[in-house]
């Protein structure tokens, strides 16, 4: 299993970024996919989840209405569209999936929101 994130960077408050996570080595289309983030000095938190079939989505309250998680099963890729970014969104963002009993993580991509 391999998860490779891309798309992070430096953006001004109010700006947008789209993160991508390319997955390989497993049947991507039958697993839920998640985005987590970890800010300096804080615990890693679950930001958004998308279901396998049907694509049901859930979000942490702090990003509702601003972030959109989506997936393209033909490309084995999950996305996180981040709009109206705030300085408190600054963190390393990780792609994640669970094939019980193991958790799989990408290497992370840094998102910095600053003027």
Task: Explain the overall architecture.
This protein has about 120 residues and is mostly beta strands. The protein is about 0% helix and about 55% strand. It is built from no helices and eleven strands. Strands 2, 4, 5, 6, 9, 10 and 11 form a seven-stranded mixed sheet that branches. A four-stranded antiparallel sheet has the order 1-3-8-7, with no helix packed on it. A hairpin with a 6-residue loop joins strand 5 (about 45-50) and strand 6. The N and C termini lie far apart (about 35 Å). The mean pLDDT is about 95.
Question: What descriptors fit this protein?
Answer:
single chain, 115 residues, mainly beta, seven-stranded mixed beta sheet, four-stranded antiparallel beta sheet
Write the layout of secondary structure elements.
Blueprint: E1 2-6, E2 9-11, E3 17-24, E4 33-38, E5 45-50, E6 57-59, E7 67-72, E8 77-82, E9 91-99, E10 102-105, E11 109-113
Looking at the structure, what is the overall shape? Answer: globular
* Helix and strand pattern: EEEEEEEEEEE
Mean pLDDT: 96
The N- and C-terminal alpha carbons lie at a distance of 37 Å
The tally of helices reads 0
Q: Regions with pLDDT < 50 over 5+ consecutive residues? A: none
Helix content: under 10%
> Would you count the extended β strands for me?
11
Rg of Cα set: 13 Å
Portion in beta strands: over 45%
């Amino acid at each position: 299993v391999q998860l490779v994130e891309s798309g992070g960077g430096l953006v001004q408050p109010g700006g947008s970024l789209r993160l991508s996570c390319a997955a390989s080595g497993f049947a991507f289309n039958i697993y839920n996919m998640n985005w987590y983030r970890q800010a300096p000095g804080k615990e890693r938190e679950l930001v958004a989840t998308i279901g396998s079939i049907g694509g049901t989505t859930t979000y942490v309250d702090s990003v509702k209405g601003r972030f959109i998680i989506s997936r393209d099963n033909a490309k084995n890729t999950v996305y996180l569209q981040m709009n109206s970014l705030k300085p408190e969104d600054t963190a390393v963002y990780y792609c994640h999936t669970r094939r019980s009993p193991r958790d799989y993580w990408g290497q992370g991509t840094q998102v910095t929101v600053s003027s």
